[in-house]
Amino acid sequence: MRTITFACAVAGLVAATPLLAADPEGPAYNNGHVVTVTQIQTKDGRTDDYLRWLAGPWKQQEEALKKAGVLVSYQVLLATDARAGEPDVFLVQEYPNMAVFDRSTDSQYALQKSIAGSLVESNKQQVARGEIRTVMGYLMMREAILK
Q1: Integer angstrom CA distances of residue 48 from 45, 80, 97, 133
Q2: Which of 9, 21, 65, 137 is positioned for an S-S bond with 39, CB 3.0–4.6 A?
Q3: Is 50 exposed, middle or buried (0-12, 13-18, 19+ CB in 10 A)?
Q4: Given strand 73-78, what is the order of strands in its sheet?
Q5: Model confidence over 51-99: pLDDT tens digits?
């Protein structure tokens, strides 16, 4: 008898679940992936140099981050006929959630060191990239998955 009562109770809860999920006062979305967009303006005559760097070390870094489960996907988008003062390259990275940004500094450093070498070397590479591009902006957005 208890088994039948329990089964009926479970069936009632399962049947009511769609009603609970459709709360008209609840949010109309769920949190999705996190997307960052870095806006780059290449220096005159240096776009090909920057794209070669992206196709080499940057792509290797992104693939390593995907393998480590930190990154879901990445893209390089080129603006068609960017106007003066506007970015012409957009680096788009998709992360599974915000939790990937809440790792210890030691953990982040160890992963980055395995990808790009020491912090000193990484900083030297950053300075060198400054000769061929300028970072114009950075956006972090979270996907809203509509219910």
Answers
A1: 8, 15, 33, 11
A2: 137
A3: buried
A4: 73-78, 89-95, 29-42, 133-146
A5: 999 999 999 999 999 999 999 999 999 999 999 999 999 999 999 999 9
